[in-house]
Amino acid sequence: VVPSLRVNAAATERSYVMVKPDGVQRGLVGEIITRFERKGFQLVGLKMFQTPKSLAEEHYGELKEKPFYGKLVDYIVSGPVVCIALEGPGVVASARKLIGVTNPLNAEPGTIRGDFGIEVGRNVVHGSDSPENGLREIGLWFDQDEIVEWEQHMTPWLKE
Ligand code: GDP
Ligand code: MG
Predict the structure, then answer these.
(1) Residue 100: CB partners within 8 Å, gap ≥ 6?
(2) Are the beta carbons of 100 and 88 closer than 8 angstroms?
(3) Mutate to test the pocket of ligand 1, among 17, 51, 68, 122 (most ligand atoms within 8 A of CB)
(4) Which stretch of DSSP H or E encloses residue 87?
(5) Is 106 annotated as a binding residue?
(6) In whole angstroms, what is the distance from residue 45 CA to residue 123 CA?
(7) Is position 102 annotated in a ligand binding site?
(8) Looking at ligand 1, which residue's alpha carbon is closest to its atom 20?
(9) Strands, DSSP E only, in 5-80?
(10) pLDDT tens-place string over residues 25-49
(11) Sequence-ordered list of residues with C-beta below 8 angstroms from that of 81, at least 6 positions apart, any chain
(12) Which residues pair with 45 in a beta bridge?
């Protein structure tokens, strides 16, 4: 066993974060990953991906009845995305705070959407809304062998 791989990963909270096609096209991938890395959350999955329509529809299945659902699916499949799996205590709610509210015009400056967007239909980034959905969405977007369990050596400098 490689020393840096955890043998028995505790089931800590995980969030599925995604740089949407507009964020990729605008060159914001590094900036967005950096914000979560700097905060102290652990990357456990990362890939670039061209989303099949069926996956976009499943991911946003809860919004099927919304008037904007068709446009939303078209937007998500309109170009490559970057899929990010993050781990850490409270990561779901904290990632949502770092991302900002759904409409970028209302999002606080300092949040990703507040700093980089002006329209709800182009809001740069996705973040899971509950720990249950975090696990569900990571299962949707990543194969099991794409999630990497590893020991983060800066942990003693992040956690008391
Ligand atoms: P989120 O959790 O903050 O991403 O927001 P929701 O789960 O409510 O909606 C999912 C995504 O649908 C949002 O991130 C937007 O990309 C899109 N969306 C939400 N509301 C609207 C809307 O009124 N119009 C359009 N065009 N897109 C919307
Ligand atoms: Mg949502």
Answers:
(1) 107, 108, 111, 112, 113, 114
(2) no
(3) 68
(4) strand 81-87
(5) no
(6) 22
(7) yes
(8) 120
(9) 14-19, 42-49
(10) 999 999 999 999 999 999 999 999 9
(11) 18, 19, 20, 21, 24, 48, 49, 50, 51
(12) 85
Cut 0.90: pTM above it:
yes
ipTM of the complex: 0.98
Rounded to whole angstroms, how far apart are CA atoms 11 and 50? Answer: 29
CA of 154 to the centre of ligand 2 (A): 31
Q: What is the set of active-site residues?
A: 126
Indicate the pairing of strand 81-87 with strand 42-49: antiparallel
**Residue 92 above 80 pLDDT?**
yes
pLDDT tens digits along 113-129: 999 999 999 999 999 99
| Ligand 1 atom nearest residue 99's Cα | 3
Ligand 1 is surrounded, with C-beta below 6 A, by 63, 68, 71-72, 102, 120-121, 123, 126, 129
